[in-house]
Specification:
The chain is of the alpha+beta class. Helices cover about 60% and strands about 15% of the residues. The chain is elongated, with a radius of gyration of 19 Å. The chain starts with a helix and ends in a 5-residue tail after the last strand.
Length: about 90
């Protein structure tokens, strides 16, 4: 809603298409978390401690949960000048 409202109010553009892919992004975050955990030894060798690893794991899981629950979303918008055919 905020994107639509601001585009309409403050630009000469309009939203002609949008694709939401929060579900896919949740899967991406899950894979990033799994890969991060699988490479814990490498992360340690790079100088990151247990506190950092736990914090980063929590952050990735938290974001994944937000996308899976629908609280967060990510989208691609296609805009056109008002009056242009689409």
């Amino acid at each position: 809603e905020a994107v639509h409202d601001n585009v309409e109010r403050h630009t000469a553009l309009r939203v002609v298409d949008e694709t939401h892919f929060g579900d896919s992004y949740a899967q991406t975050l899950q894979r990033w978390r799994e890969t991060f955990l699988a490479n814990s030894d490498t992360v340690t060798r790079l100088g990151f401690d247990e506190t950092f690893r736990r914090m980063w794991t929590f952050y990735l899981a938290y974001c994944e949960a937000g996308f899976r629950a629908g609280y967060l979303d990510v989208a691609q918008f296609t805009l056109a000048r008002s009056g242009d055919p689409s």
